[in-house]
Design goal:
With about 100 residues, this protein is of the alpha/beta class. It has three helices and three strands, in the order αβαβαβ. The chain is globular, with a radius of gyration of 13 Å.
Length: about 100
């Protein structure tokens, strides 16, 4: 069974990245300890992957960033868990979903 969790924001005022939602994320992702991060929300995709990797590492979850290009579809299919970060206004960065 596939499950989908929608999170409308990654940061609440006065708190760190994903701090407000981490308990729910970990519960939802369990038992997965590795996730594939799809960093479409920011233009600096490498920086965003690093930010997610650092935050999830504190919880014992390994993060791999999805690279566009050959092998992307296979990486998605093989992932234990998938975390897709989308911008509020997709505009020209909109992925083909």
């Amino acid at each position: 069974m596939k499950r989908l969790l929608l999170l409308s924001n990654s940061t609440n005022h006065g708190r760190g990245y994903l701090d407000h939602a981490m308990a729910a994320l970990l519960s939802f992702l369990a038992p997965a300890r590795r996730l594939l991060f799809v960093p479409f929300a920011l233009h600096d995709t490498d920086g965003y992957v690093a930010k997610a990797r650092e935050r999830f590492a504190r919880e014992g979850v390994e993060v791999e960033g999805l690279a566009e290009g050959p092998g992307a579809a296979e990486a998605v299919l093989a992932a234990e868990a998938l975390f897709v970060a989308l911008p509020y206004a997709l505009g020209d960065r909109s992925p083909d979903l």
